[in-house]
Task: inverse folding
């Protein structure tokens, strides 16, 4: 099974991947997603790949204005 769906998540600052993983595990346990290997510090967003449209809707519903 592949990650067919993508969602651009607003997130700024260093350690975006680590911070997103921590937030997702606390807020949405069991969510199946794939993150990029790296993200530059200067970017203000990150694309999260998801397996299903339901996962995408679940993430959109729980997403704050900016991931902490």
Result:
């Amino acid at each position: 099974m592949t990650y067919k769906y993508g969602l651009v998540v607003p997130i700024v600052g260093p350690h975006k991947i680590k911070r997103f993983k921590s937030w997702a595990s606390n807020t949405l346990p069991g969510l199946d997603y794939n993150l990029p290997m790296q993200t530059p510090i200067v970017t203000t967003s990150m694309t999260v790949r998801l397996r299903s449209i339901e996962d995408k809707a679940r993430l959109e519903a729980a997403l704050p204005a900016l991931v902490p």
User: Anything to note?
Assistant: Strands lie at 5-10, 33-34, 45-50. Helices lie at 16-27, 53-62.
